[in-house]
Specification:
It is built from 6 helices and 4 strands; from the N terminus they run βαβααααββα. It has 147 residues and is mainly α. The radius of gyration is 20 Å and the shape is extended.
Length: 147
């Protein structure tokens, strides 16, 4: 974070770290935390109140209850991070890129179009497919939910 001058780093456990969904690590730089501390307006959502979360994490006092943590998800996150550490970041990034490119090629071979046309602008962890003309997206959602 420091070397890249990133102020806020946030990750999803499922898509980015191969852990169960629901655990989202976040980190703030000193510069970002200073902005949070000086905020004048009220945060619109209880869920996005970083100061309240800091009290829950016991970074700030007094402690305030925010939510119920799911212990098994924390253990799963720890294991996912250990596996990532063993594999190495560059190797994991390459694995995701290779698998995404295979998926993209398969989608295109089926005659479908990817929502993001330029490969350089796509994320390897999320693939969006444009629906062909005349396909009702609501019918697809209903079918998936039914099955």
């Amino acid at each position: 974070m420091d070397a890249w001058e990133i102020d806020v780093l946030y990750s999803g456990s499922q898509k980015a770290l191969s852990a169960p969904p629901g655990t989202c690590p976040i980190s703030f730089s000193p510069r970002a935390w200073e902005k949070i501390e000086k905020r004048k307006s009220k945060v619109d959502s209880f869920y996005f109140d970083a100061k309240l979360l800091a009290q829950y994490w016991e970074v700030l006092r007094p402690f305030k209850y925010h939510h119920t943590a799911f212990p098994s998800n924390l253990y799963a996150m720890r294991e996912a991070l250990a596996e990532l550490s063993e594999e190495g970041l560059e190797a994991a990034w390459k694995r995701h890129r290779v698998n995404a490119e295979l998926l993209w090629k398969g989608v295109e071979n089926m005659g479908l179009k990817l929502f993001v046309p330029e490969k350089k602008n796509r994320l390897p962890t999320i693939t969006l497919i444009s629906l062909p003309e005349g396909i009702d997206w609501k019918a697809i959602i209903a079918y998936v939910l039914e099955k």
